[in-house]
Design goal:
By secondary structure, the chain is an alpha+beta fold. The protein has a single domain, classed as 7 Propeller (Methylamine Dehydrogenase, Chain H). It is built from 4 helices and 27 strands. It has helices spanning about 10-25, 30-40, 110-125, 135-145; strands at about 100, 155, 160-165, 175-180, 185-190, 200, 210-215, 220-225, 230-235, 240-245, 250-255, 260-265, 270-275, 285-290, 295-300, 305-310, 315-320, 330-335, 340-345, 355-360, 380, 385-390, 400-405, 410-415, 425, 435, 440-445. Strands 1-10-9-8-7 form a 5-stranded antiparallel sheet, with no helix packed on it. A hairpin with an 8-residue loop joins β5 (about 185-190) and β6.
């Protein structure tokens, strides 16, 4: 072939160049093809002859790695172990009680002390019973219209996507708690009006799915993550552990007004009954509901032995008194959803209504938040039996208030101050205060 004087490797290389030249020519890449053709036809200016291999006895002794030979260097002992890997940005939270100290402080600063002192002080005051269930929709609409959002009432309270929120029932001070997807809980004293009014704590290793201030003692903030249910007790300045499980938790609600017992949902479709008075961190009972997954549970406001569970497409009412490990049958099933249900809640006064949020976009409401936003949860206004609030994908960004008839009553929006989707919202039980949380950890207080 004219190249017999070349080595096998060089002949193979020229063959590849020739084939590539034909390929580029077929693609009409003329310059590349011409260049490659030149390379294949260009005569060798010289032929490099291989030098004869040296005899073995002529070669110097080949160096061998002392590491591979496992020989210890002189006066430099081998390390017994490897150096530890770089720690993750957010390491696992240890089991058991945790001090109520912000993440960026070795000990409480005066600002943190002020925040916790405020929480403790306002928890000692008994809030008056709210005027529940007023039927005057016109007056209710007027109160909604009077609620506004200003720049000073917007704050980044946690570092990541807001997954849950709770608001303290105090009528004198606005104290909000927000949980994010990294297990952080941010506490914000909105009323103090200063930069030092918000602090971040890390009581969980995973996403904070659900939070409630205790209905009988708001000095307690209960929070639920994948593996644990904790109680933040400001009087002791500690996040104590109530229940821990290898099963992945998703939501909880109190079974009694005294908040001693709770129903806890699990992602695998089961629910657990937890009694805070029982020693240890295990649940009293685990009951399979027959769901493929259980996202939310909610206890009936009047008959507290009934609870509502929402799963993939399932929304059912169960009686906690008759729960057993297997074979549980619902008292009532709310059918009709064709896609994944994100939440379901009883109305706040009588419990005669249930509002659900589903990916099938009922109420002609766009619930498709996508993977980067927390899924919407429609919540009842605790002051109004017939009205609920839910986030929206609409532009301009807004939080919408509906009647139980489906009638849109009001849209909370602010072109200047609200430019993001508030997936998670919470309403004050007695005051006209709404807090919306977005996917960047920012809270907006109307």
């Amino acid at each position: 072939d004219g190249h017999s004087h070349l080595s096998a490797y060089e002949r193979k290389r020229l063959k590849n160049i020739t084939e590539n030249a034909k390929f580029f020519a077929a693609l009409k890449l003329h310059e590349s093809a011409a260049r490659l053709n030149q390379l294949t036809t260009k005569r060798q200016s010289h032929v490099t002859k291989r030098a004869k291999p040296k005899k073995v006895e002529d070669e110097p002794a080949r160096r061998r790695s002392m590491r591979l030979l496992r020989v210890e260097p002189v006066e430099i002992p081998l390390l017994e172990t490897f150096s530890p890997a770089v720690a993750e940005e957010y390491p696992q939270v240890p089991v058991g009680p945790l001090p109520m100290v912000p993440e960026d402080q070795a000990e409480n600063s005066k600002w943190t002390e002020a925040l916790l002192s405020t929480w403790k002080r306002i928890s000692e005051l008994k809030a008056e019973d709210a005027d529940m269930g007023t039927s005057d929709i016109k007056r209710y609409q007027e109160s909604l219209s009077s609620m506004v959002l200003s720049e000073e009432n917007i704050r980044k309270v946690v570092k990541a996507r807001v997954c849950s929120m709770a608001i303290h029932p105090s009528e004198s001070t606005i104290l909000v708690a927000a949980g994010d997807k990294w297990g952080h809980i941010g506490l914000w004293n909105v009323s103090c009006g200063t930069e030092e009014g918000a602090h971040i704590f890390i009581p969980h290793s995973f996403q904070v799915h659900c939070m409630h201030f205790s209905p009988c003692n708001p000095a307690h903030l209960l929070s639920l993550s994948n593996d644990t249910l904790r109680c933040g007790d400001v009087t002791k300045a500690v996040f104590d552990e109530i229940c821990r499980s290898e099963d992945s938790f998703s939501c909880f609600d109190f079974l009694e007004e005294n908040a001693c017992t709770a129903i806890v949902a699990q992602w695998d479709g089961a629910v657990a009954v937890v009694d805070r008075r029982t020693p240890g961190l295990s649940s009293e009972l685990s009951a399979d509901l027959g769901f493929s997954r259980t996202r939310t549970v909610h206890v009936h406001p009047v008959n507290r032995h009934y609870f509502l569970a929402a799963g993939s497409v399932d929304v059912c009412v169960f009686d906690v008194r008759y729960l057993k490990a297997k074979g549980n049958k619902p008292l009532s099933s709310l059918t009709g959803h064709t896609k994944s249900v994100a939440s379901a809640y009883f109305s706040p006064v009588t419990g005669s209504r249930v509002v659900t949020v589903c990916a099938d976009d009922k109420l002609r409401h766009n619930n498709n938040t996508g993977r980067w936003l927390t899924r919407f949860r429609a919540i009842w206004d605790p002051k109004q039996e017939h009205c609920f609030l839910v986030g929206s994908m609409a532009q301009p960004r807004q939080i919408q208030v509906f009647q139980d008839t489906g009638n849109l009553l009001h849209s909370f929006c602010s072109v200047d101050c609200l430019s993001s989707v508030c997936s998670i919202n919470v309403v004050h039980p007695s005051q006209h205060i709404l807090v919306g949380g977005n996917s960047s950890g920012r809270l907006h207080v109307f």
